[in-house]
Amino acid sequence: VPWTSLPGLLRPSCHSFLDPFLGTFPLPADRPESPISSFTLGLSDMHDKVTAIWQQLTQRAAEPGAPGSALHAACRVQPSASLDPAQPRVSGLVLFRQPAPGAPLEAFFHLDGFPAERNGSRRAIHVHRFGDLSPGCEAAGPHYNPRAAPHPHHPGDFGNFAVRDGRVRKHRGGLAASLAGPHSIVGRAVVVHAGEDDLGRGGDPASLDHGNAGRRLACCVVGVCGPLPWARAAREHAERRKRRRDSDCQAA
Ligand SMILES: [Cu+2]
Ligand SMILES: [Zn+2]
């Protein structure tokens, strides 16, 4: 668009109307006398700078293994505020780590307070849609389902977890959920259920909605955190595995 072909529109009174449009076109730099041209050049320059910073940040984050590039999140599990007194009071910590945006997620599930049965029951854990849990875990709403998929193909369908001695201690990798991007689970809820997830094989519509996993015992909101909680959990996990190996060797 030639500069001179916008008669009338370039009067100073038209600034606010034109600026968003002019800012996207390269304008001649040899017109320092026009207040519009210097202002729009400034806008265009600012846009370039912001784009450069954004690219730098996303590129750095996309390099797996680069120091500080991994994303971390934590969820401090608490018994539901609406819990029936007959139900177990489950609490603990769920930690997430994602090497880069778009990479598979891994998680530590660290829960206590289940009935201490010998032969472990299995309990479902999912990511639910809402992060307001003040009236109880029901407020978390349905499964987080940004792609309108059936259960168990929601990003936060973590499946079933075996309880041993009233506890869950589990590391899972290759999870579909993400801590970055438009479908990030940050700010959404993790819900621990009283029952087992039928994984969509229940034969009823509810099975393809939530897996008939039963009551919501405990929940938490996923929040961004630094790398230290994950490092600590990974160390404890490695020590536990070593102890188990050692005791298996002694028993053999
Ligand atoms: Cu659930
Ligand atoms: Zn689901």
TrEMBL record:
Free-text remark on how the cofactor is bound: Binds 1 zinc ion per subunit. Binds 1 copper ion per subunit.
Keyword Transmembrane part of the UniProt annotation: no
A GO cellular component annotation in the UniProt record: Golgi apparatus
UniProt keyword annotations, A-Z: Antioxidant, Copper, Disulfide bond, Glycoprotein, Golgi apparatus, Metal-binding, Oxidoreductase, Secreted, Signal, Zinc
Residue span(s) of domain Superoxide dismutase copper/zinc binding: 90-222
Keyword Zinc in record: yes
GO molecular function, one term: superoxide dismutase activity
Catalytic reaction list: 2 superoxide + 2 H(+) = H2O2 + O2
PROSITE patterns from the UniProt entry: SOD_CU_ZN_1 (PS00087), SOD_CU_ZN_2 (PS00332)
Subcellular location: Golgi apparatus, trans-Golgi network; Secreted, Extracellular space
EC supergroup of this enzyme: oxidoreductase
GO biological process: response to hypoxia
Main location, first listed in the record: Golgi
TM stretches of this protein: none
Annotated EC: 1.15.1.1
InterPro entries given in the database record: SOD-like_Cu/Zn_dom_sf, SOD_Cu/Zn_/chaperone, SOD_Cu/Zn_BS, SOD_Cu_Zn_dom
Cofactor(s) essential for the protein: Zn(2+); Cu cation
Family designation: Belongs to the Cu-Zn superoxide dismutase family.
Biological role: Destroys radicals which are normally produced within the cells and which are toxic to biological systems.
Name of the protein this chain belongs to: Superoxide dismutase [Cu-Zn]
Originating organism: Canis lupus dingo (dingo)
